[in-house]
Amino acid sequence: MTDHRLRHPHGAQHPTRRVAGRGPGWYRGDVHLHTVRSAGGELTPGQLVAAAREIGLDFVATTEHNTAAGHGDWSRHAGDDLLVILGQEVTTHTGHWLALGLEPGHQVEWRYGVRDDVVDRHLDLVRRSGGLCVAAHPYAPYESGTLAYPYRCFDAVEVWNGQWRSDLPWNADNEAALAEWGRNLAHDIHQGRWWPALGNSDTHLAGQLGTPHTVVYAEELSVEAILAGLRAGRSWIAGSAAVDLAFAATTGDRVVGVGEHLDTGGAPIEVRVRVSGAPAGTVSLHTERGTVLRERLPADGSGTVRWHTTARDSGFVRAEVRHPDRRMAALTNPVILA
Known about the structure:
This protein is of the alpha+beta class. The protein has helices spanning 45-55, 119-128, 172-190, 223-232; strands at residues 25-33, 59-62, 83-92, 95-100, 132-135, 156-161, 197-200, 213-218, 235-238, 244-251, 254-257, 261-262, 269-276, 282-287, 290-296, 303-309, 316-322, 328-332, 335-337. Strand 6 (156-161), helix 3 (172-190) and strand 7 form a beta-alpha-beta unit.
């Protein structure tokens, strides 16, 4: 383990530092949350916005169950320091999905199931307006919560969902969703299309926001730029605001980060993961061959892991950071190697 400064792709020296003017940089956000307008929701938009600012989020999305009625509640709370993305949680009879980037008042139909064979029509309507469609909590253990649609129907997959509980933000449901996503990743990348992973709190109650949340590289803090970054997989998932991570693959003078392609021409590749905020945790690297490296972090939770490979041996690499009890602290989308 070597603890030193890792230069992040795009010139950033810190993975979540933004440049002045809210231009290109890394932004933290939670795009699955509910207010009093959703069943089980106990918070107002004002309370959620205050919580988002307190924990340092840069963007949130409003995703009430099957309604756009609350879209107008948020306009007075947003500002240059906090972007609000309009959306909806679409709770179909056979699985839930998030429609992100909706126009004000746009309500998505939810009264159907997998046997009706209509989900693609509703997904396309969201995409045509520039929106993003995310498979939500695929293994949620309640009626209609388990996803019957394949991941490939959507633009991204919520592999980590807070499931209403800030005290247990990683559980067997998330482990199953991550395992399915990970199993499909090698095949999907080989076929030229893969589905990025997201993490959200699914906030209903106080204290849940941001546990977990997604950290995305975007050209600016705007709806279009944030959704573009999520769509491209230029993101990683943090279990809390205390966790930080920089992940890069290097060959020669070329450096790329999560969601990017590294064309190597057969040259050796160095993969580096710098982590902080995961005391005594474990960093692991994963390729189509499975887990290829596992290394322990120091007691203070800060350190850098290095690993060497070639594109012949690894078509992609992604990282996980887990606490000593195996709960997830952070996980990344892959770097594609060729």
